[in-house]
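INFO batch 0412 | record 1 of 1 | parsing
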Amino acid sequence: MAAVILDGKKTAEKIKAGLKSKVESLKKKGVTPGLAAILVGNNPSSQLYVKLKQQACDEAGIYSVKHELPEDSSEADLIKLIGKLNSDERIHGILVQMPLPKHISVKNVVKAIKPGKDVDGFNPFNNGAVMDGEEFLVSATPKGVIRLLEEYGIGLESKEVVVVNHTIVLGRPLSMLLMNRNATVIVCNHKTLDLKKHTLQADVIISGAGVPGLIKKDMVQEGCVVVDAGISFVEGKVVGDVDFEKVREKASYITPVPGGVGPMTIAMLLENTILAAAK
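INFO prediction complete | emitting tokens
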């Protein structure tokens, strides 16, 4: 029996519809949530992601502005711009689109963003809060994964969850969110020597390694929940980490790519912006 599709697009639309009323409520109090996106360089994927985020802001009634910097901009130039946005009362959320050029330190950049405006949830203060069980401005993609599972009534308590990603963007904050929900978490990556040994024991697999076809049918036990947070481009098409058509024959639930985690990430970014504005 084929797996139930975890429809991130449909779920995100439902969430965004609810966010509109929250925006209207804030506007009645004289506050219009504002989001600033910073794009360094001309990476086509990054440009597309920022465009989608701005479109979503417009639909929700959130004020948005985009700042574009040349590829050769210095780290100091970027941090100076972040400083200006930190003090701009119209801006409640700041996101710096990843990836950044190699000469710019991601750690220094995320530390420069005021924690209360860190709607991507990358600042060490916000990550530390999640580790302490406080979930306010949580990293958008991990938050989107958890919300999607919750919307479909998929419990995590006492479940064994294998996360195939160990980055600050996904794997690390996601593992904390899972542990906050009493899951047993194993964090792997694409260099884990025997990944199959771990995934075959998993009740839930969440993969975001960015390696097409990494998770195959023989790596998944019957009834496993499979969340594909990987994004790669193969022959001009967006693909995930999971061999979708074959894995869905064994999984109980599975996300598509596109249309799974991606839309949820944008919905959570909007929600974080509204939370920051309300705060």
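INFO post-check: The chain is about 40% helix and 15% strand.
INFO record closed
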